[in-house]
Write a structure and sequence with these properties.
alpha+beta; Immunoglobulin-like; 2 domains; 8-stranded antiparallel beta sheet; 6-stranded antiparallel beta sheet; elongated
Length: 190
């Protein structure tokens, strides 16, 4: 009996000695994971979009070349009814700067119907403000090149973060309501 008691005491001493070290290593690992240290550099993340969301965040690409940075995103309408996309505003928070897709931005439905994005952010057809209807569960693509001469092209291998606001109109109880969907997209420059 005395021999069994010493085995139990040895096991408890081992757990008390090394258990704290294991606990500290686990806590440090969780903290590093939460800080994004273990995220691969090629990952793209999308946050805060609710009713109108990027359909496939892994396919969002930021491309850098000598003069312009380009962005291409496919969105899906999850608002529960047809929405009319009215305007789109894009603002880079990292690297800092304003990216207005004026003159080079388009919003396109799968059937080929499209609108250009004016300097004001409003969608236009033939120079006149015109919304783009997107049916429930329907998709649309947003593509543009940043036409900002004083903002240098992003370096390949760096990361970007942008805030996007999508203004739309939806019918609630037969009355049109203006809404804004805001979200953040982070990803690598490839």
């Amino acid at each position: 009996m005395k021999f069994l008691g010493k085995k139990g005491q040895g096991a408890m001493e081992y757990l008390m000695t090394y258990g704290w070290a294991i606990l500290v290593v686990m806590i440090v690992g969780v903290v590093l994971w939460q800080l994004g240290i273990f995220n691969p550099p090629a990952s793209t993340t999308v946050t805060k979009f609710v009713k109108i969301r990027p359909l496939n965040p892994g396919q969002i690409e930021q491309k850098a070349n000598a003069t312009n940075d380009g962005l291409s995103v496919v969105f899906v309408n999850l608002a529960g009814d047809t929405v009319h996309i009215k305007n789109i505003d894009v603002n880079y928070t990292s690297p800092p700067g304003d990216c207005t897709p004026s003159g080079s931005g388009t919003v396109t439905l799968p059937d080929g119907t499209s609108r250009t994005i004016a300097a004001t952010g409003n969608l236009q057809s033939g120079g006149v403000d015109e919304s783009l209807p997107v049916s429930q569960d329907g998709t649309f693509s947003l593509k543009f090149l940043c036409a900002n001469a004083d903002k240098p092209a992003l370096a390949s291998g760096s990361r970007y973060e942008l805030t996007m606001k999508i203004g739309y109109e939806i019918s609630v109880g037969g009355f049109p309501q203006n809404r804004t969907e805001t979200g953040i997209i982070k990803g690598p420059v490839i």
